[in-house]
Amino acid sequence: MTQETQPAAQPPSPGHGTSTAVSTATEERHPERFTDPGLPPHRHRMGDTDPRAARRAERQVALLFVLSMIGTLGIIAAIIGLKYDNTFERISLSTKAIGLAMFLSLFCLGVGAVHWAKTLLPDDERIDYRHRQRGTDAERAKAVAILKEGADEAGLGRRPLIRNTLIGALALFPIPAVFFFRDTGPLPEGALSRTWWEEGKYLAKDPEGGRILAADVSLGSVVHVMPDDIDEAGEDLLAEKGKAAVLLMRLKPEEMLDKQNEWGVDGIVAYSKICTHMGCPVALYEQNTHHLLCPCHQSTFDLDQDCKVVFGPAKRPLPQLPITVDAEGYLVARSDFHEAVGPSFWERG
């Protein structure tokens, strides 16, 4: 019996099945590009088609700018009219009044600008293709013409009410800054170089009051101190308290430097509590390391090195207050600080 032999499978010839398969795979990977749909149809706003709506929007924008001007004037009135009398209620009232007036000024200015853009400025969509950074002279002239066209479309020339109220709001807005800067007080070189301390003033505990006996200051302790007559500062009470705050500590006399021994009493030294970086209160004392720490920005002062800065952004040691004791053993100041207290943000001689 004869067995028929099947012909061997032949590879597809070029240009037939293989080409078709490759073409199909290519189409699957790179589908045909879709056509550009273009820009959506423009939807006209009421102000574009109704002159009365445009005038109404113009008056609304002008009213918002006028309210912004009123808010700015309110800031000035609050600064001038609500003076501090060193009471929390008065300070709170002044701060709230300034804050509310500033909110009115900024809010109305911003809302007015947004309302103007939404209702009156042109909102047609345009396509600008990328081109070289430096265009030709013709392109640059065309750009200038486009800017002029945009200025005309903005309607500043045709809408003097908006233009004038906007100019008024923007012109008034920076004026309160002058009062804020003035309210910061005199230059610190003169103001911070003199505090309530002077020769003969007793050291008193803060805030409970009461003069301090040298014998009551224990080794490793820290006492917050004010002049015992600080309440006599009157209207300047808060400012004087801020400058006169002192930390009182006791070290072993043999560990003290010469200056500390000279300006201290039996190991007791007094240093300004006001950080020389930004004026925060230095309130933390590490007994083991004799480090004073400012919690605001972590400036660290080494009491063993006359409160030299050993870490943090502060650049100057805490000033030391010279002290002594009276006949009854109470701690008393020998003089004011010999240098200005507080932050070192101005040039020193």
Secondary-structure blueprint:
Blueprint: H1 17-29, H2 46-49, H3 51-81, H4 88-119, H5 137-154, H6 160-172, H7 175-182, H8 188-191, E1 203-205, E2 222-227, H9 237-244, E3 246-250, H10 258-263, E4 268-272, E5 284-286, E6 291-293, E7 300-302, E8 308-311, E9 320-321, E10 323-325, E11 331-333
Antiparallel strand pairs: 1-2, 2-3, 3-4, 4-9, 5-6, 6-7, 7-8, 10-11
Helix pairs in contact: 3-4, 3-6, 3-7
Region (Disordered): 1-53
Transmembrane segments: 61-82, 97-117, 161-181
Main location: membrane
Plain-language structure description:
The structure is a single chain. The protein has 349 residues and is α+β, with helices and mostly antiparallel strands. It folds into two domains: 47-125 and 137-182; 189-333, Rieske [2Fe-2S] iron-sulphur domain (Rieske Iron-sulfur Protein). The protein has ten helices and eleven strands. Strands 1-2-3-4-9 form a five-stranded antiparallel sheet. A four-stranded antiparallel sheet has the order 5-6-7-8, with no helix packed on it. A two-stranded antiparallel sheet has the order 10-11. A hairpin with a 5-residue loop joins strand 10 and strand 11. The radius of gyration is 38 Å and the shape is elongated. Residues 1-9 and 12-19 have low confidence and may be disordered. Residues 26-35 have a biased composition (Basic and acidic residues). It is found in: Cell membrane. Keywords: 2Fe-2S, Cell membrane, Disulfide bond, Electron transport, Iron, Iron-sulfur, Membrane, Metal-binding, Oxidoreductase, Respiratory chain, Transmembrane, Transmembrane helix, Transport. It is a multi-pass membrane protein.
